[in-house]
Amino acid sequence: MLPRTGFRDDARFAQAFSKKGLPQDIVDFVGASVVEVLSLEDDSSATTVLSNLGALYFMMNKPEDAEKAYSRLTHDYPDSPQAKNVIFTQGQSLLAIGQKDKAVEVFQRMFNDAKTFSPEQFLQLGLLMMTNSQYEVASKAFQLARATKDAAFWQAATVGWAQALINLQQYAQAIKPLEEQIAKNPTSSYSVKSGMMLSRSYAEAAKSLTDPKEKAAGFNKSLEAMNNARRITKDQEIIAQSDLEMVNIRMAMGDTKKAAGICQSLILLSNVDDPKMRPFIEKAFEMSYSLLWDQQHYADIVENCDFYMKNFPGGRLTNQARKWGDDAKVKKESLAPAPAAAAGK
Known about the structure:
The protein has 345 residues and is mainly α. It contains 18 helices and no strands. Among the domains are: 1-84, no CATH class; 256-333, no CATH class. Helix 2 (24-37) packs antiparallel against helix 3 (43-59), helix 14 (236-253) packs antiparallel against helix 15 and helix 14 runs parallel beside helix 16. The longest helix is centred in the middle third of the chain and has 20 residues, at 212-231. The chain is elongated and about 100 Å long. The model is unreliable at 1-23 (pLDDT under 50).
């Protein structure tokens, strides 16, 4: 066992606590040493110890001991940075050991006492919740984060809120924050993503409308939003991604001819040797098959399949490409005119 005097230095405390998989005797020793450490005049040492001790106990799957450490921290040092972030630290630790439900319960305390937390802390919470697919909690956090006076943070919070709503399939509700972000910052990098998200939200919301005029208006707004997003970027990956989104929009509108045309342009005009473009080309090939088949463009299917087999050897769609090509050849030949009968027969 390590000597107690070796743990008096704050930096060595932090280093020890940050390592995972520490032997149990060291964990127990650290817990027993906290009382001695708290007698130090330097409060920063004590607050760091308690914060890291709580995280360590969580990693050791000892939530009750962790709660004791955090309670001591908030009670004895309520104004310390660690105490102000203790709820976030607790939640992160619970997520790290797979306790998502308990983590959400912990984070709920931030909402119950929202005035004591900064917008930036709620932005951090929103991002963490998105990573862990907790979209309801993320949505609430991003809304509170929008109270920030920092323009960049406000954009991040607004786009994050809209993304959470989209992930919850609340497309109509996502429209307003996206429109706000684009209106305030029409040429920012966030506005490219916002424009694509807004386009999808308009299209998804339009699908549920029953009035033909309102539905058409919704789809037109979707196309306009996507075109606006494309105008403020030269990134070929983003443009290719927007092409695929346009295919989905056109399909939702029932305009399969234009949807197929977008796929064909992406397949035939993109640089297939560019590694960044290949996933988009492959996806366009996949999406094009049913569109071309329904329009009886069998020759185009055959050409696409030959293109895929040549340029994507061993690709994820190899088996489908072989079958699609063979089926299209059969259809193509069945529609070919019969040869003219020889004269005099």
